[in-house]
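1st attempt posting a full record on here, be nice pls
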Amino acid sequence: MSFLATGKVNYRARLERAELLAQRYSSAQEILGFYRHIARFQKEFYEQLPKLRGKQALASASDTLRSHLDLPILLEPFGKFLSLIESQSPEPLSEHCRRLKMRGETEWTKVLTDFWNSGLLEADAAEPLTQFAARAFLQPYAEFRVAALLPPGLPMTVCRCPRCNSLPLLGVLRPEGDGGKRFLQCSFCSQEWEFRRILCAHCGEEQEQKLPVYVAEQFPQVRVECCETCKHFLRTIDLTKDGNAVPIVDDLAAIALSLWAQENGYTRIQSNLLGT
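the predicted structure (as tokens):
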């Protein structure tokens, strides 16, 4: 069992891929345009984090990803993020972020702390608009912090992130030999860990006949991996079909595949940031 090595997050690649896919898929232009506003903020925030943290140690040997939240350095940037979303998003998200911004740092502390402690551990969000704001803002912070943690031991295939126990967002097929090795990507910290090719990432079903895979001609690099036992699905980005794909972005563009899966009675294990 292997864990994909943590490295610096390439937000530029995410932005460039979002622009390309917006040109390729007219149905995704609006959602990817909105995502580019978010990703630009995330890129700048991610690049500022070393300076904001100063000489503080990122993690001790006993730390887990969720063990510490640097609230003093997060509150001011979170206010700026809420202003961005208020100005760039449609209703009712814009109005929700306006109201949240007006409540001030006491409420922001609660929102960020609650999401850091328990966000994405389950599929359903009691307040999806609040979760969106916390998730989008904290994603680069989680990606930054996870780089300081020791690699976890992986004695067996696991359906949750070994770093933070979150549900998987995606599968990723990375080229290996004449085929591809399957990884799962975390919905919280974006890390990847190896996962068996024939296994449901939700219930552990391993009978191949109960695990159909669907691919649409429009999205040859995106697999919809379904389970007839638990009726959940996982979208997998196949880098053996398109080595230029950026999993987190290609997933956002595949709106039609989510609609198809829902119409056929499947539920996604964990939604992506924009619910596409």
